[in-house]
Amino acid sequence: MSSKDWIEKDFYATLGVEKSASSDEIKKSYRKLARESHPDHNPGDPKAEERFKGVSEAYAVLGDDAKRREYDEMRSLFGSGAFRRGAPGTGQPGGVPFDVSDLFGGGGGDTRFGGGGFTDLFSSIFSGGGAGGAGPTRARGPARGRDVETEVALDFDDAVRGVTLPLTLRAPGVCDTCHGNGAKPGTQPTTCPVCHGAGVTTRDQGSFSFSEPCRNCQGVGTVVEEKCPECHGTGGVTKTRTLNVRFPAGVADGQRIRLAGRGEPGQRGGPAGDLFVQVKVRPDDLFGRTGDDLTLAVPITFAEAVLGTDLRVPTLDGAVTLRVPPGTPSGRVLRARGKGVVRRDGQAGDLLVTLDVVVPATVSDEARAALESFADATPPAAREHLDARVRRVG
Question: Which segments constitute the CR-type domain (predicted)?
Answer without folding.
Answer: 162-240
